[in-house]
Amino acid sequence: MSHDHHHTEPPPDIDLRVKALESLLTEKGIIDPDALDELVSTYENKVGPRNGARVVAHAWVDAEYKKRLLEDGSKAIAELGYSGVQGEDMTVLENTPSVHNMIVCTLCSCYPWPTLGLPPIWYKSVPYRSQVVIDPRGVLKQFGVEVSTDKEVRVWDSNAELRYMVLPERPAGTEGMSEEQLAELVTRDSMVGTGFPKAP
């Protein structure tokens, strides 16, 4: 009779190294575990894609807010309490039936942390940064995203002075949904332009 003992297997090498480093830094008094937990909690719960999703959902239900968001992204995003380092100067790009926007940072990995959280590994990778400006439709296909040939694809290059965020199209069939329910449909990739919101 076999018994699954996977729960007793050691964690992956990277997890062990991180844990060892954390233990050593704590032992030497260089870091405070409580402060570290607070920092992780901040990025998991207060900073990140959830913030951007709330911005998008609010724009979907409030036409006046959407107008302000497209005119001055930084100011409108700050209205909802999301601002800070890496998100001071924001431009929001609206996806429409005729235009699909994508963001990249070809020089490094500038990314709007206060609204989208930490950048995914692929966003910082050289293949993404170099290919998206040359063949955006090909990159979209790699993400499983098909954009019709009659729709223009625009690529926007973030930098240290200016960061972008995509306002995706509101999915069909969401007319009766609340703002909170709509926010659950918004994905990080849809705000980068490499994906769509979830279907209701």
Question: How many domains would you count in the coordinates?
Answer: 2
User: Which residues sit in consecutive blocks of at least 5 with pLDDT less than 50?
Assistant: 1-8
CATH class wording of the largest domain: Alpha Beta
Judging by the overall fold, what is the CATH architecture of the largest domain? Alpha-Beta Complex
Strand elements, count: 4
User: Beta-strand percentage?
Assistant: 5-15%
Looking at this protein, list some descriptive labels.
mainly alpha, Nitrile Hydratase, Chain A, two-stranded parallel sheet, 11 helices, 4 strands, globular
Task: Give an overview of the whole structure.
This protein is mostly helical and 200 residues long. The chain folds into two domains: 12-44, no CATH class; 47-192, Nitrile hydratase alpha /Thiocyanate hydrolase gamma (Nitrile Hydratase, Chain A, Alpha-Beta Complex), CATH 3.90.330. The protein has eleven helices and four strands, in the order αααααββααααββαα. It has helices at 13-27, 33-46, 49-61, 63-71, 73-79, 113-116, 121-124, 126-134, 136-142, 179-183, 188-192; strands spanning 90-94, 99-104, 152-157, 163-167. The chain has a two-stranded parallel ribbon with strand order 1-4. It has a two-stranded parallel ribbon with strand order 2-3. Helix 3 (49-61) crosses helix 4, helix 4 (63-71) packs across helix 5 (73-79) and helix 8 (126-134) packs across helix 9. The protein is globular and about 60 Å long.
